[in-house]
């Protein structure tokens, strides 16, 4: 009978005990993977956050966001959440480059991990496939020539750009980590999509 009471007391304690505090829990796999963004030599490619639709209207212009496919409210929330997760693993004062498309610029700004600079070679070539080779060469060169390995480099761009470089098809808001090789090629070393 005493053993039975002891067992019941343990069960009651387990049921009534509060969950472990967040800081006592092991870090999530996503957090561990996102920490790669701090590693010297790693370049973080980010596909812009959720923007409903495909491509852009035929009459869009870069200077007018109202003519483009833009982030949804969910996309804005996702970009803020990704930025918070990056800051939580120490990604701050990053070199953030972005496509000139409004959905990429907004994603980059909402990440809030460093000063954002528009960079034309990150622009989409979805509607102009003839630009794919030169844009991919420029993207590869930027990764290979990464100068300041102390600062994280984040490149916010489009699915077509990431696919042309890596062969992967990232979903909106997905992160792909790449590293330049001694031979001047680019290897994928990981990818993360926040749940």
Task: Please give a structural write-up.
The protein has 195 residues and is of the alpha/beta class. The chain has a single domain (28-192), classed as 3-Layer(aba) Sandwich (Rossmann fold), CATH 3.40.50.1240. Helix content is 35%, strand content 16%. It has a six-stranded mixed beta sheet with strand order 3-2-4-1-5-6. The radius of gyration is 21 Å and the shape is globular. The relative contact order is 0.19. Residues 3-26 have low confidence and may be disordered.
Key descriptive features of the protein:
195 residues, single chain, alpha/beta, Rossmann fold, 35% helix, globular
Write the layout of secondary structure elements.
Layout: H1 2-16, H2 29-34, E1 42-47, H3 73-88, E2 95-98, H4 102-111, E3 116-118, H5 132-144, E4 153-157, H6 159-166, E5 175-180, E6 186-192
Parallel strand pairs: 1-4, 2-3, 2-4
Antiparallel strand pairs: 1-5, 5-6
Helix pairs in contact: 3-4
